[in-house]
Write a structure and sequence with these properties.
With 211 residues, this protein is mainly β. It is 2% helix and 47% strand. It folds into two domains: 17-91, Jelly Rolls (Sandwich); 100-199, Jelly Rolls (Sandwich). It is built from one helix and twelve strands, in the order ββββββββββββα. The strands form two sheets. Strands 1, 8, 9, 10, 11 and 12 form a six-stranded antiparallel β-sheet that branches. Strands 2, 3, 4, 5, 6 and 7 form a six-stranded antiparallel β-sheet that branches. The chain starts with a strand and ends in a 10-residue tail after the last helix.
C-alpha cells in the first residue's frame, strides 16, 4: 500500500523513510522530539521558531530544511513566534539524496502538462513523471487525487504517498489547495535528478518490489 499514516510500522517494508510525523505548534509552545530513526530530517511547512539541532541553533521559518547529526542529537523547538507546522522524516537512507522541500498543487483554468501522457482527468499543471530514487509526499494541508503505480488514491492531511524508483506518479486533481513535503531518498541507477519522462529520458524501469 503506497499511502500510509504516521506511526511506527506503517510504512511499506521497502521504504527508506520508515516513519514521519506532523507537529502543529502555537506561539509560546515548545516541543522536543525523541529520536526515532538512524537519520532524521525536519522541514518547516509554515511558521517561525528557534530549532536546536544537536549543538546548533537555527532561526527557522517556512521552507527551513534540517538534517539531524549522527549520534544522540535530537531536534528541540523553542520560541515559536507564529502558528508553525513541522514535518519530521525518520529512517535510514544513503548519503547521495535527490531533493527535499515543499510543493503546492492547485487547480488551473487552463491545465498544461509537459509530463508523460495519461488517460485520466487532469485539472492541475502537475506532470506525470518518475525518478531514479524513491519519493515520498507528506500532505499537511488540502487534498485531492494522487496517482502512483497506475492507481488513484484520495489523500489529505496526514497522508504519505510513497512511490518506488521508476514508478510514475502524478497529482492530477485537487479538492482543496494542497501543501506538501517531498523527499527523494537515495539516488540509484543512472542517478538522474529532477522529474524524468519516458518521452525525454527513456522508458522508465519501475522496481517491481517497491509497491
Amino acid at each position: 500500500m503506497p499511502v500510509f499514516k504516521s506511526g511506527k510500522g506503517q510504512a511499506p517494508a521497502w521504504c527508506e523513510m520508515q516513519y514521519f510525523d506532523i507537529v502543529e505548534l502555537t506561539p509560546g509552545q515548545t516541543h522536543r522530539y525523541e529520536r526515532v530513526g538512524v537519520k532524521e530530517k525536519l522541514i518547516v511547512g509554515q511558521g517561525e521558531c528557534l530549532i536546536t539541532v544537536g549543538d546548533e541553533q537555527v532561526q527557522a521559518e517556512t521552507k527551513t530544511n534540517l538534517d539531524l547529526p549522527a549520534g544522540d542529537a535530537v531536534f528541540e523547538v523553542k520560541e515559536v513566534q507564529s502558528p508553525t507546522t513541522l514535518i519530521r522524516m525518520c529512517g535510514d537512507w544513503g548519503e547521495e539524496l535527490g531533493g527535499s522541500g515543499l510543493f503546492a498543487v492547485e487547480n488551473s483554468d487552463a491545465p498544461q502538462d509537459k509530463g508523460d501522457p495519461v488517460d485520466y482527468e487532469k485539472t492541475t499543471n502537475f506532470d506525470s513523471h518518475f525518478h531514479d530514487c524513491d519519493e515520498y509526499w507528506i500532505l499537511y494541508e488540502g487534498g485531492g487525487t494522487a496517482v502512483t503505480e497506475g492507481k488513484s488514491y484520495q489523500v489529505g492531511p496526514g497522508d504519505c504517498v510513497a512511490t518506488g524508483m521508476g514508478h510514475h506518479h502524478d497529482f492530477p486533481t485537487v479538492s482543496e489547495h494542497v501543501k506538501s513535503v517531498y523527499f527523494e531518498t537515495t539516488m540509484q541507477g543512472e542517478k538522474r535528478r529532477s522529474h524524468l519522462w519516458d518521452h525525454t529520458h527513456g522508458k522508465a524501469r519501475p522496481q517491481a518490489d517497491r509497491v
